[in-house]
Amino acid sequence: MIGRVLNRLKGCPQVVEGTAYAILFTMGVCHLLNDMIQSVIPALYPLLKQKYGFTFTQIGVITLVFQLTSSVLQPFVGRYADRHPQPYSLSAGMCFTLAGLMALAFAPGFLPILLSVALIGCGSSVFHPEASRVAQLASGGKKSLAQSIFQVGGNGGSAVGPLLAALVVIPYGQHAVGWFALAALLASVLLVRAGHWYSLVLAEMKTLRRKGQAAVCTLPAKTVRNALAILVLMIFSKYFFNACMTSYFTFFLMEKFGITVQQSQFCLFAYLAAFAAGTLLGGFLGDRYGRKYVILFSILGAAPFTLLLPYLDLFWTVAMSVVAGLIIASAFSAIVVYATDLKPDKVGMIAGVFFGLMFGLGGIGSAFFGWLADLTSIEFVFRISTWLPLLGVVAVFLPDVRPKE
Fold first, then answer.
1. Do 123 and 74 contact (CB within 8 A), yes or no?
2. pLDDT digit string (tens) for 151-209?
3. Angle at 48 between CA 104 and CA 248, to 5 degrees
4. Which residues fall within 8 angstroms of residue 225, CB to CB, at 6 or more apart?
5. Which helix (H) or strand (E) is 14 found in, with range?
6. Over the chain, what is the mean pLDDT?
7. CA–CA dist 10, 178 (Å, integer)
8. Higher model confidence: residue 395 or residue 257?
9. Are 96 and 119 in contact (CB under 8 A)?
10. Residue 203 and residue 156: Cα distance in Å, rounded?
11. Alpha helix positions (H), 106-180
12. C-alpha span between 30 and 37 (Å, rounded)
């Protein structure tokens, strides 16, 4: 596959040989802005719970609605984009996010909040499949690195969101969410430029298809199906655990150690920042040593640290969460690239499926853990979730597909 690099000639992007780092970093920045906006939603939970008297079940339902709208549409968007690419759909999708943010800033109760987060979720479902496809097209063959640059932007945004929520939204209230609309507007402008580059690439891809140079996978169909099933289980393990951390880690810290809402947001930021750093590390290791081993290590290797979390003091709880986040985060980029290598002719659909699973399973996990917390306690839920990374052992059955030299 021919890589591209973004140059400027009379204000227009041009396609030449090489890895398109300008496009990769543009997509990474847009992913940062998109996921920063998304991460504000769970960061608002303590404020919304206190303001409206929501139960943990209602908090879980808010996450479920948001995550399902972020996930259910993604495979369909990706499949449609594989057949009928729409270079400017990325910018258009960000307009849904913009509308959802403004609605959330002034939502007066539970049902309007659900509608607001659903709009934000729809914007995300349009963004992720096509953006992941653009990142791979810009990789110049360095797929894990490209996916990591793209993904680390998202993880960085997820880390920054709670920090900004602690500094802006918590002190000034729900209406302050409206300021994040500026981020959606900036992302929309950047995506218009990336869309023009994408349109040039699509023209060249049509030429490659006519010459019979499209990528193919030579593994047997049964092996591909089994590998995809294992990857789905990996996503379940990773994002059920992560759902508990992002939605209920702050409540756990406040209940067990008596810290304030703002202090708990800083602790969540530490976990999410480590999550972002681990994503970039996984990209380098995946291209160098093979994605199977990165997947196995990043999920199963986190288990000793997650299992310690419920039994430590405040300092070591936060420290172990940072180490666990750093290790477990490296899996997702490797999983997505591994899956798209299995189905190279359906990059958009596969990316949509796995991003959709990421959000969908995260939403289901949040709703499940919220329901369980109402029946038992936050500490019990936290203890149960820390066993999930042990499911990573099934990664040993993945075929060893190493990147070509």
1. no
2. 778 777 877 877 787 788 878 878 888 888 899 999 999 998 888 888 888 777 666 55
3. 115
4. none
5. strand 12-16
6. 80
7. 36
8. 257
9. yes
10. 33
11. 110-137, 143-164, 170-172
12. 11
In this predicted model, what pLDDT tens digit does every residue of 226-240 receive, in sequence order?
A: 888 888 888 888 878
How many CB atoms are located within 10 Å of the residue 163 CB? 19
What's residue 136's pLDDT?
80
Q: How far apart are CA 159 and CA 322, in angstroms?
A: 12
Q: Measured between alpha carbons, how far is 285 from 283 in angstroms, rounded to an integer?
A: 6
- Stretch among 15-24, 112-121, 188-197 having the lowest mean pLDDT: 15-24
Q: Which residue has the tokens 């939970």?
A: 45
Residue in the structure block whose two tokens are 């797929």: 143
- Rounded Cα–Cα distance for residues 370 and 364 (Å): 10
Name the DSSP letter for residue 376: S
d(CA 344, CA 209): 13
Task: Please identify which residue in the block is written with the tokens 């999708």.
Answer: 93
Q: How far is CA 277 from CA 165, 273, 327, 377, in A?
A: 21, 6, 9, 31
Residue 14 backbone phi and psi in degrees, to 5: -120, 155
Q: Residue 208 has what pLDDT?
A: 56
CA 31 from chain center: how many Å? 9
d(CA 128, CA 360): 13
Which residue, chain included where needed, has tokens 């209406």? Answer: 175
Tokens 């349109």 belong to 199
H/E segment holding residue 6: strand 5-9
pTM attached to this predicted model: 0.68
Scanning the structure block, which residue is given the tokens 């140059």? 7
The radius of gyration of the chain's CA atoms, rounded to the nearest angstrom, is: 20
The SS3 of residue 9 is: strand
Element (H, E) at 52: helix 45-52
Residues 6+ apart with CB under 8 A from 243: 63, 361, 362, 363, 364, 365, 366, 369
Work out the average pLDDT over 366-371.
83
φ, ψ at 399 (rounded to 5°)? -65, 145
Show the tokens assigned to 28: 């990474």
How high is the pLDDT of residue 319? 92
Q: How far apart are CA 6 and CA 194, in angstroms?
A: 9
